[in-house]
Specification:
Length: about 130
Amino acid sequence: MNVRRLAAIDMYGSRGTTRRRWIILAEFLVGVVLMVTWGCWLLASANAFGTRAFGLWLVGAGLNYAPLSLYALALMRPGALDAELAGVNTDGELRRYTVLQLWVFVPLTLVVFAIRGELARSRTRTTAP
């Protein structure tokens, strides 16, 4: 899965309004801060195993918003989102990524996907003529 494309499609939505871009950026940033903070607090203060497990899940799921936030910040530059989605069937991608965004709930998966994607992109850049 392409996490950068997920962020781009989520920011664009069905019409690509500037308002939506800011809302999605705020969602990603708040997701990281609130989920990781709450998860860390639960890990530090809870005595029950279930509560600590939930805190650990919150941290892992919250960290999934970190690459989304970084990509969203990069895509806020003028023309960056349009360049990312040039030639893309946004309606089809929106349907596809609506389902794929459920990976956010699996701790650290988007972090792993983003790292793998960036490593692949850097290998492509270094091997291209």
